[in-house]
Design goal:
about 525 residues, alpha/beta, eight-stranded parallel sheet, about 25% helix
Length: about 525
């Protein structure tokens, strides 16, 4: 049955939305060049409608040299030719709305491309240029300025500073091709308010804010005092991340969003030491949602999961923001592989996530049960951190392999011209074509779960769960409205009393009357 959608202005639609992340390079190729594009996305929008999601988040498609897969933006108001044209983007927005889907676009405000017009002019004009004040240019340390201005490290490895031929250095917390903006400069703040309005005028329903925690740096750019700074990410406040001054920026953005009808939203990618720090981004006059990385990083362990759920819900309650839940994205190992336990565990984790109160994020391909591709040869990798020392692990390409749509061999219907990353030879059974209509498939599990989530009064928005007594290794909770979610995180079956009739199970369970055996790595939704 085709899910029914409605994009008429609905107050707080985002509080229980299921948002699907599309990584444009890898979703669908519309012109046969081996690279996903806007035409491909547009052609597959009915698939997303039928899947049952509420909104689609598009990773960057802006004009870019692609030094970091589009997160190095050269022009925030133009489409990179590899993805199409501005009319193509408008068509995606228009068609999505016609299908009842909202569109959220990525926004990259911490840094731009070194090919951005501002940065190119700043380099050309040399020291003293007013354009350099829009970035972080500094003189170096040492007798001849040969040392970086401070000891900050790039998240992609190496120093966070690059020296230009005239002797000055510029800051880049990521790749050298991604200079950081100086958000203390009013021109930067004005420009991004303008960019927000440009896309809002085209009809987008919101923004996912990349590195939302990074815009403001500590005054004076103080030294860290030690190396291996990446290990501290998300563990403590750093001089280049999660500074209090960032909240003034988001208050000004909220006034822009509120100018537009239709409940337009902004979602923070904010790596913070605690969920309480994350909640600060979601005060009523700031952003609407933030990714719950604390939950994503939780082990598959009943005690740890319960604690993460409680902590997440407790942190959001004082700011009246919905908790978000996410298992996979374009920067982490797919959860089928990351959690261990294979597909059974991944399916159980999904039903647990979708039963929790708040909003859920899905990453393209997880509904097919795709594993991480761990055996990509070095010569095909394109993750920039793979080519640098001492930075991230450099293996993000494994979750970015293009989707399999149909057929028995690569490129599995992705397009007519191959795929920019090679697809595994054993993915024929994981294609959309192979799974649609198969009641035991992961795709049909997702479709059923999302349909129930849309219609069942106990699923979706909310701020709490009622924990139920359960054996060790089992997570069990009730949602107001008569639904119980029970999850066995262990490998062995556990005998339990059935709280009601089975609505949905991540694995087949034997018919029961009263007590039943819940298999290992299995989640069940019961209706009381």
């Amino acid at each position: 049955m085709t899910p029914q959608h409605d994009v008429t202005p609905a107050t707080d639609w985002w509080r229980d939305a299921v948002i699907y992340q599309v990584y444009p390079r890898s979703f669908a190729d519309g012109n046969g060049d081996g690279m996903g594009d806007l035409a491909g996305i547009r052609s597959r929008l009915p698939y997303l409608r039928d899947l049952g999601v509420d909104a689609v988040w598009l990773s960057p498609f802006y004009a870019s040299p692609q030094a970091d897969a589009g997160y190095d933006v050269a022009d925030y108001r133009a489409i990179d030719p590899m993805f199409g044209t501005l009319p193509d983007a408008e068509a995606v927005i228009r068609d999505a709305h016609g299908l009842g889907l909202r569109i959220i676009v990525d926004l990259v405000p911490n840094h731009c491309s070194d090919q951005h017009a501002w940065f190119r002019r700043a380099l050309a004009e040399g020291p003293g240029s007013t354009l350099r004040e829009r970035f972080h240019f500094r003189k170096g340390r040492g007798e001849n300025g040969e040392q970086p201005p401070n000891d900050w490290e790039s998240l992609f490895g190496g120093p966070a500073w690059t020296r230009v031929p005239d002797g000055e250095w510029y800051l880049h917390l990521f790749a050298p091709e991604q200079p950081d903006f100086n958000w203390d400069h009013p021109a930067v703040r004005d420009e991004f308010r303008s960019v927000l309005r440009f896309w809002l005028d085209l009809g987008v329903d919101g923004f996912r804010v990349d590195v939302a925690h990074g815009l403001v740096k500590a005054p004076g750019l103080p030294d860290m005092g030690h190396g291996e700074q990446l290990r501290l990410l998300g563990n403590q406040v750093l001089p280049f991340f999660d500074q209090d001054g960032v909240h003034d920026i988001y208050r000004s953005w909220r006034t822009v969003l509120d100018e537009y009808a239709g409940d337009r939203i902004a979602v923070a990618e904010a790596w913070t030491p605690t969920v309480e720090r994350t909640a600060r981004y979601l005060r009523p006059d700031e952003l609407h949602q933030a990714f719950n990385f604390h939950y994503l990083n939780t082990d598959w362990d009943a005690t740890a999961l319960r604690e993460a759920i409680d902590t997440s819900l407790d942190a959001m309650r004082p700011v009246s923001a919905p908790t978000t839940w996410v298992l996979s994205n374009h920067d982490v190992v797919r959860h089928r592989t990351r959690l261990g336990g294979g597909l059974d565990r991944a399916r159980a984790a999904t039903l647990l996530m979708l039963a929790l109160p708040g909003s859920a994020y899905l990453y393209q391909g997880e509904e097919l049960g795709l594993p991480e591709v761990t055996d990509l040869p070095d010569e095909v990798r394109q993750d920039p951190s793979f080519f640098r020392d001492a930075g991230q692990e450099g293996l993000r390409d494994g979750c970015r392999v293009p989707l399999p749509w149909s057929g028995d061999a690569a490129p599995y219907g992705f397009g007519t011209g191959g795929s920019w990353l090679p697809q595994p030879a054993d993915w024929a059974a994981l294609t959309v074509e192979a799974q649609i209509g198969d009641p035991d498939s992961t795709l049909e599990l997702y479709r059923t779960a999302l349909s129930l989530r849309r219609t069942h009064p106990a699923l979706g928005a909310g701020a709490s769960v009622e924990w139920l007594d359960a054996p060790a290794g089992v997570v069990a909770f009730r949602r107001p409205g008569g639904l119980v979610c029970t999850v066995n995180t262990t490998a062995a079956p556990v005998r339990l009393a059935a709280p009601g009739r089975v609505l949905l199970s991540s694995r087949r369970v034997e018919p029961f009357d009263g007590d039943f055996a819940l298999p290992g790595d299995t989640a069940v939704w019961f209706e009381e």
